[in-house]
Amino acid sequence: MLSIMSVSASGFSSGLIMTPAMPRTNVVMQEVESPPPPVPIRPVPMGEGMDLSSTAAQKRIAVAVDAADRKLKGWAMTKAMFKEGWMRAEDETLGAADLGPPFTEQTGIGWATSKEPKNREEMIAYAKTLNPVVGFWDPLNIINEETAPETIGWWRHAEIKHGRIAMAAFVGYAAHANGIHFPWNIQQPLNLWGPDNAIANLPTISFADIAAAGSPPDMWDAVPTAGKAQIFAVIAFLEAYGETSMALEADGQTHYVRGGKPGYYPKFKGRFPHQVPLELWDPFKFNTRMSAERKEEALRAEVNNGRLAMIGIFGLVSASKGLIVPGLDGLVESGQIARYSGEIMSPFSGADSSLPFVGEMAGNIGSYGW
After folding, report:
1. Is 306 buried (19+), middle (13-18) or exposed (0-12) by CB count in 10 A?
2. Residues 340, 320: contact at Cβ < 8 Å?
3. Apex CA 211: angle with CA 210 and CA 214, to 5°?
4. Is 349 helix (H, G, I), strand (E, B) or coil?
């Protein structure tokens, strides 16, 4: 039999003392004084009181890798790098500003020896190397005398990254608009865990089925919800890894808000539990054969091409929504650019209502007046 039994309901706790020798009908109930409430404990940041310098962090990463199994050393390195990056992000000195970029507060960390543009004068000189005709054009006064070097680095990195995405988007839009697609299936049933498993009953969907949906934005809407979720998961991982300072420092680089090179993406090789055949940046090693001067010239060309691609993809999307875009209107009228009736700024549609909050958001599609 029980000698002591505790009962808790709706936050109320009391003690019941049961004497084994007594019959059940003569149970003696006695109130037991409740313990004092626990003293609130202030959460301690992961890296508080720890040396977060690159040298100390590299030693901790090396210890974690050495202690891991031979087949898991890549995973141990990646995990340790993310942990070190997270501790730095939480640190009051090394972490981001309270408001975050582009409103980053000036710290000076890493900029004393940086060769990257860090003030208005250097940005004016850099802009002239990009386009001597246009020069420095900043109608919104984003880069002024009070702009922190961290903010300049953030804007430059954002422009390079979005330019690269726009170049890929422009080529992809043109390819899909002309019916070019992979000859495989994007989804098909897989009988891996028995016939009653969900993936064993998936409908077969080919890239040709997606391409038949209409315009490239219509094709995105036709992608299965699971496919969209996988794409966003990969993007989230790539973003997190690219922002991890320890992954950058392992390549001898520095984060772009600490005076590092905007647009640089860290390497994959030797840092994951499985082999990665290609790097995200320069997968075919073209840049390794370039001189430093040629690399700088190529980067300037990439920035200019990225700017043009951003204008181009916005033009294609705007034309598909029926807006007047000089030079592209004729393509819409001839049917080479198909019209899109959905919400271009919504990554999900009503077909993705199985995801949280998507059903409510999808109900507003088409109600904005365009």
Report:
1. buried
2. yes
3. 105
4. coil
CA 203, CA 210: separation in Å to the nearest integer?
Answer: 13
DSSP 291: -
Contact 91, 52 (CB under 8 A): yes
Q: Cα-Cα-Cα-Cα dihedral of 357, 363, 369, 370, to 10°?
A: 70
Q: Would you kindly state where each structural domain of the chain is located, as residue ranges?
A: 101-362
Q: Pull the structure tokens for residue 193.
A: 């865990």
pLDDT in tens, 207-260: 999 999 999 999 999 999 989 999 999 999 999 999 988 889 889 999 999 999
pLDDT for 310 beyond 90:
yes
Residues shown for the chain: 370
Cα Rg for the chain, rounded, in angstroms? 29
- Tell me the per-residue pLDDT of 110-150, one tens digit each, with 9 for 90 and over: 899 999 999 999 999 999 999 999 999 999 999 999 899 99
pLDDT for 48 equals 63
**Residue for token pair 């905007």:** 262
DSSP string of 229-288, one letter each residue: HHHHHHHHHHHHHHH-HHHHHTTT---GGGT--TT-----TTSSSS--SS-SSSTT--GG
Which three-class secondary structure string do you get for 326-343? CCCHHHHHCCCCCCCCCC
- 26 pLDDT above the threshold of 70: no
Given a contact cutoff of 8 angstroms between Cβ atoms, the answer to whether 346 and 365 are in contact is yes
* pLDDT tens digit sequence for 52-73: 888 888 899 999 989 998 888 8
How far apart, in whole angstroms, are the C-alpha atoms of residue 173 and residue 349? 19
Query: Band of the pLDDT at 4, cuts 50, 70, 90?
Result: very low
Degrees to nearest 5, angle at CA 96 with 90 and 102: 155
Distance CA 36, CA 14 (A): 13
CA angle in degrees (0–180, nearest 5) for 265-165-295: 50
pLDDT at 85: 85
**Closest to 166 (Cα-Cα) out of 338, 325, 305, 343:** 305
Measuring CA to CA, how many Å separate 291 from each of 206, 213, 247, 261, 286? 44, 46, 24, 17, 11
**Which stretches of the chain are assigned E, i.e. beta strand?**
4-9, 12-17, 185-187, 205-206
